[in-house]
Amino acid sequence: MSSSGPEPSASVLDVFRQSVAEIIARSLEIPIETAYDGVDLGKKGVDFTVAIPRFRRPGKPQELGKKIEQEFSPNDYLERLVVDGVFAHFYCNSKALTRLTLDQINELSRPTESAPFGTYGCNSSGRGKKVVIEFSSPNIAKPFHAGHLRSTIIGTFLSNLYSANGWETIRMNYLGDWGKQFGLLAVAFAKYGSEEKLAANPIMHLFDIYVAINKDVKEQEATGHSSVNEEAKDVFRRMEQGDTEMLALWRRFRELSIEAYKKVYQRLNITFDVYSGESLVTTANIDASMQRLRNSNLLVEKFAWESKRDRDYNAVGQQAQDEKPAYAVDLSKWKMSKPVVQKADGTTIYMVRDIAGAMQRYQQYHFDKMIYVVGDQQDLHCQQFFKILELMGEPYASSLQHINFGKVQGMSTRNGEVKFLDEILDMAKEAMLAQMKTNEDKFSNVEDPDFTSDQIGMTCVKIQDMQAKRAGSYPFDVKRMTSFEGDTGAYLQYAHVRLCSVARKVADETTLREDVTTINTDLLVEPKAREVVYHLATYPDAVRMALRVSEPSTIVTYCFRLSHLISSAWETLVVKGQDPEVAQARLYLFTCARHVLSSAMRLLSLTPLERM
Ligand code: ARG
C-alpha cells in the first residue's frame, strides 16, 4: 500500500507493518518490499489485512494462507493471526502498540524552531523535491466567487499537505491582474474613481466602478457602438506597449488590492510565498512561446467568427468584419478543439499567458511538480494548455497537475450575491455568534466572543468545503454548517476544546508527569482505549493517503472519526477521582489525542481552540 517505504521514526505503525511483511515475505517467498506494499490497514478491529491473491504466487490462496499460519508465531509486535479465506488478518500486541504510539506522539509533538506545532504525522517522502502550488487566484475588480473560495481552502490544505510529506512547497497566488478589463478599469477610474474610496476599500471600490462602467458599455452597445469599449481597448493596447502613465495607475490598483487581500488571507490563516499574476508573465516569454508554436507548426489561423464561444476571444467578436486571423492551436485530434492563443490585434490572452507562465515558472523554480487548484469549469482550459506544452516538447509538461473541484450552489448574503471574501466570513461569524448566544450561561463564560465566533465560523466554512470529495458540489448552507449537531466545524472545535478541558478539570488532583516513561501505559486495558490508540497510530498513514489522492476529505474524515472515538471513550476512561496511576495513563492518552487532533486540524489550516 505504501510506496514510499517504511519510516519508523515518523510512524510507529511501520514497525508493526514491517513485522507483518517479514512473515508474508518468508512464507510466500517474495521480496520484503513487495510484501510490505501489500500490508493494508484492517477494518473493524483488525489491525492489518493482507489479501493473499495480490502477490500472484503459485498455489491456492487458501493453501498459501495455511503456510502463513504455520510461519506465524507471536512476537514483540504481533500477537495474533487469523486467516479467513484469502485474507490474512493480523493483530498487534496491544501493550507494545500503546506504549510505542503514545511515546512517539509525545516525542514528535514537542515544538521545535522549525516546527512550532511538532511533526507527528509528517514524513520525509518528498525530501529534495519541490512543488509549486497555485491557488486562490482572484481577479482584481471582479467578485471573489465560490470558486475562488474553494481554491483558497483546498489549495492551502494541499500546500500544508505537501509540506507535511517533506516537499519544499511554493504557495503562489496567480492574480487575474491583466487583460482588456484593465483598460476598462482605467477608463472607469477616470470617470467614476475616488482616491479616498480607493484608499479605504480598494477591492470594493474597484469592483463598484467596474460594474458602473460595464453598465455604460452595455447601454452604448445597445445603440450599436460603444466608445467606452473602444477607449478601453486602446488603453489596454497602450498598457501592453508599456505606457508609463497607464501602468502606474494599474500598479496602484494591483498593489492596493493585494494589501487588502493579504488582510483577509491572514484572517483565514493563509499565506502566500509569491503574489504572481497574469501581468507578470513577460513579453519575452510570450514571444518565445509563440515562436516555439510557430516553429513546431502548431499554429493555425482562425478567424473571429470561428471562435464566438472562446472565452477571451468573445470580446473582439466585432472584428469578424475585417477578417483578421487570430492564432490558434489545433487540438481537435485530442478532442480539445482549437483554442485561440493570440488575438488578431496581437494582444495577449489568458491562454498564452498560461503557456508562457508555465515556462517562466519552470525557469524560475525548476519544480518537480506544479499544481493548479482551479474549478472544474476550467477543465478544458487546463487540458488544452497542458497539451500544448507537451506538444511544444516542454520537459515538465507531464509534471503539471490540475486539481479541480465542483461548484458551490447558492452562496449569497441577505443583500444578494456574495462579492467579497470578507462577506462570506462575516456571514459565518454572525451565524456562529447567534448560535453561541442561544446558550446564555456558556456564552457569558466565553472570554473573547469576537475571536471565538470568528474562528469557529471559519472552521465551519472550511470543513463544509473539505468534508466531501473535491469533485462533488454542495449547497452553501450557513445554518447547517454552523450547527453543533452532526459533523460540522463547530463540532470539531468542540471536540478539541473538550480534550483541552480534561487537563484543566483534574488539575487539582493530578497533572501529567513530565517524564512520561514512568507512566504505566499497560493500565490502558479497555477496548475503547485500544481503539483510540490504534486510530492515533494511523494518523501518519492518513497524511500519506491524503497526498496520494489529493483529497482534504481524507483528513476531515480522520478528524471526525477521532472525535467520535474520544467522545464515546469519556464514560469508560474517566480521569477524575481515579487511582493516580490509572489517571496518569488516561490523561496521557487524552493528551496525545489532543496533540493529534490539533495537528490534523492545523493541516486543514484550522486554528484549534482551547476554550469556547
Ligand atoms: N483568475 C482565474 C479565474 O478567476 C483563475 C486562475 C487559474 N489559474 C491559471 N493559471 N489559469 O478564473
UniProtKB/TrEMBL annotation:
Highest taxon of the lineage: Eukaryota
Domain DALR anticodon binding stretches: 492-612
GO molecular-function terms, A-Z: arginine-tRNA ligase activity; ATP binding
Keywords recorded for this protein, A-Z: Aminoacyl-tRNA synthetase, ATP-binding, Ligase, Nucleotide-binding, Protein biosynthesis
Cross-referenced SMART domains: DALR_1
GO biological process: arginyl-tRNA aminoacylation; mitochondrial translation
GO cellular component: mitochondrion
InterPro entries named in the record: aa-tRNA-synth_I_CS, Arg-tRNA-ligase, Arg-tRNA-synth_N_sf, ArgRS_core, DALR_anticod-bd, Rossmann-like_a/b/a_fold, tRNAsynth_Ia_anticodon-bd
PROSITE patterns from the UniProt entry: AA_TRNA_LIGASE_I (PS00178)
EC number: 6.1.1.19
Catalytic activity: tRNA(Arg) + L-arginine + ATP = L-arginyl-tRNA(Arg) + AMP + diphosphate
NCBIfam families linked to this entry: argS
Family recorded in the similarity comment: Belongs to the class-I aminoacyl-tRNA synthetase family.
Protein name: arginine--tRNA ligase
